[in-house]
Design a protein that fits this description.
The chain has 333 residues and is of the alpha/beta class. It is 34% helix and 16% strand. The protein has a single domain, classed as TIM Barrel (Alpha-Beta Barrel), CATH 3.20.20.510.
Length: 333
């Protein structure tokens, strides 16, 4: 296997403004704030992957941005599907805009039509075949994997290792989101029959970089001490490679750890609306956005010392070429 330089994967969930507030009229003003982040990324040689949902695919401002990105080869457009407002519409809960149900909660024929529609829409708007994907609200299952394969997707980044979304509801009458606590934390080809299990080939999964916030305590999960509630809560805490304007020290420790371990990639995640003041509850003001960018300068400088920029599809091509590892053996039952 060729020892390629480790990769830095930037993934941006590219969606309407402040989706956390469950708006009934979705706006896309955040498209106008993306060029600043793109310029910063390019200065460090990084190439983001923008995972785009329905309203952003239909935004003229984002269309112009995305086409320019592709024309210059400085990033990638992939698919991100919010089932509640992505055509063809299907009323699942009586108020889907409020409940924001997961795609996997819809009937399988509706799921497939939505995947087909979004895949075709993005290809039409951006003039390229979709290869990369992230599920809306992180919810996947075996049916969804099969649909992505059928539609020609090559790489997914929906797995959040160590994180369960069972307590996060979509349809209030259903059982919550996907539990990823037993899924691999590194790249693997998804077994369509059992998405937590690696296969020999197929859809490549690139889990988000999410580490235990307290690694030594996390090791206690397999000891009798796991029954101590305070320790168990601390052991369950996770640190995402996701800046919020207040976690720079933790992010730098995470980057240094993965550089020391020789991780073949690290994967960053933010939402497009988080670059706009008031576009998210975490970054509500212009001052908070400036603080975010100050932290990104420091973080990207640290990352560039150890990792090189790549899009999701570029990294997947490297795995297929044998330049990066992917798990190939089945997990223990």
């Amino acid at each position: 296997m060729t020892n390629a330089r480790p990769a830095f994967l930037i993934t941006i969930d590219t969606e309407g403004d402040s989706i956390w507030s469950r708006p009934r009229q979705i706006t896309t003003r955040n498209a106008g704030f993306l060029p600043r982040f793109q310029s910063l990324s390019e200065r460090f040689g990084f190439r983001p992957t923008y995972l785009v949902n329905y309203e952003m695919a239909e935004s003229p401002e984002f269309q112009e941005f995305g086409r320019d990105l592709l024309r210059r080869g400085t990033g990638e457009i992939g698919m991100h599907l919010h089932a509640w407002n992505s055509p063809p519409l299907h009323d699942l809960t009586g108020d889907d805009h409020y409940h924001q149900p997961f795609l996997i909660e819809y009937p399988a024929p509706v799921m497939e039509r939505k995947v087909d529609y979004m895949t075709a829409l993005l290809a039409d708007r951006f003039g390229t075949r979709m290869r990369s994907h992230r599920a809306g609200r992180w919810a996947t299952d075996a049916r969804y994997v099969a649909m992505l394969l059928k539609s020609g997707y090559e790489v997914d980044c929906s797995v959040t290792p160590g994180v369960s979304w069972r307590q996060t509801l979509g349809d209030p009458g259903a059982s919550g989101g996907t539990d990823y606590r037993t899924y691999p934390a590194q790249a693997y080809y998804i077994d369509p029959a059992e998405p937590r299990r690696p296969a020999a080939n197929g859809l490549l999964e690139l889990p988000v970089t999410i580490d235990p916030a307290f690694p030594l305590l996390a090791a206690l999960a397999h000891t009798p001490l796991r029954s101590l509630a305070p320790l168990a809560r601390l052991a369950a805490r996770r640190q995402w490679l996701r800046p919020n304007g207040d976690n720079l020290a933790q992010l730098l420790r995470l980057v240094r750890r993965h550089a020391r371990l020789g991780s073949p990639y690290i994967e960053f995640i933010l939402h497009s609306s988080e670059f706009m003041p008031g576009g998210s509850p975490v970054l509500p003001t212009a001052a908070s956005i400036e603080r975010l960018y100050a932290h990104l300068e420091i973080l990207f400088t640290a990352i560039a010392a150890h990792f090189r920029g790549a899009t999701l599809s570029e990294y997947a091509a490297g795995v297929r070429a044998g330049n990066y590892p992917a798990l190939r053996s089945a997990l223990a039952p």
